[in-house]
Amino acid sequence: MFPLRREAVDRRLPSALPPGRLLGPRGPRPHHPVVWLSRGPVPDLAGWWRRLYADRLGSGFHPLLLEYEDDSLEPTPVAASVADLISLPRGTADVTGTDAAVGAAGVPRRDAAPVVGPVVASAPGPVAGPVVGSAPDPVVDPVAGPVLGSAPDPDGRAWELAQRLCREGSARSLALVEVARSADLPAAVGWRGPANHVDAAGLTAVLRSWEHRFGIRVVGFEHSTLHVSVASPPTSYALAQALGQEHYALCPDVFHEYPEAEWDAYPSELVHRGDWRFWWD
């Protein structure tokens, strides 16, 4: 039996939500998140996402766009830190959140090398040999502070992507998840979209690293597709090449859209893109 009764959970959720149901918590707190899921398509979905996103720091709940009332979510315990989440050794940063990937005052550094962690895959040819992993937790939610670059706007980029997903029909439903940062969404809901390649905890670890370095925000899931906004793309082709290797390590299926002769074009796209899409077969 859970220590929180249903009525107590309902009182913690934002008021006046669309019709929905609770998927979590599924175990004793404090490490099992509250997960709420809408029942079917939500009218004015983009508007709902925008209001709930604006209130996420106060409410403690982060909105997530879904293509359907998804059956690939299984709320799981949320570890207190990335090191606990993916069993990596600690000690790469102090409590100020400053290391090779994060500069002074927690400002992301896009010139940092890929953070070493568990190898997910090896790419042949021009995108060989990536390793991906996790950056340390920030002291404050990074959305509250600037990201390195020319006036980057993580919130604005996330809103642009949310509008497009709703407009194109890639998002129809809504979830609310008890997390402090969007990178934790896959692990918190136990998303099984990339299950043939990486588990939800490993995906969250990589997303936390990209959150620090590129100002990404997780905006939506389709059944096996992840959509993230990008506030601070890589600033050079060389950095984009290294990032492309990380993308391949996490999601080699993306490169099925690129014939081998065109793989060199992928880094050029990353320099200019304001969002990334990953899909797993």
Q: Please work out how many helical segments DSSP would assign.
A: 9
Mean pLDDT: 73
- Going across the major beta sheet, what is the strand order? 1-2-4-3-5-6-7
Reading the helices and strands in chain order gives HEEHHEHHEHHEEHHE
Main sheet attributes: strand count, strand direction, barrel closure: 7 strands, mixed
What percent of residues adopt helix (DSSP H or I)?
25-40%
Could you say which overall geometry the principal axes of the C-alpha atoms support? globular
The end-to-end span amounts to 37 Å
As a percent range, the share of strand residues is: 5-15%
The radius of gyration computed from the alpha-carbon positions, rounded to a whole number of angstroms, is: 18 Å
Task: Report the uncertain regions.
Answer: 79-150
Name the structural class. Answer: alpha+beta
The count of β-strands is 7
Task: Give a quick rundown of the structure.
This protein has 281 residues and is an alpha+beta fold.
Describe this structure in words.
By secondary structure, this protein is of the alpha+beta class. 30% of the residues lie in helices and 13% in strands. The protein has helices at 6-12, 45-54, 56-59, 82-86, 154-168, 185-189, 200-214, 237-250, 265-272; strands at 20-24, 35-38, 62-66, 173-177, 216-221, 225-230, 275-279. The protein has a 7-stranded mixed beta sheet with strand order 1-2-4-3-5-6-7. A hairpin with a 3-residue loop joins β5 (216-221) and β6. α2 (45-54) packs antiparallel against α5 (154-168) and α8 (237-250) crosses α9. It is globular, with a radius of gyration of 18 Å. Residues 79-150 have low confidence and may be disordered.
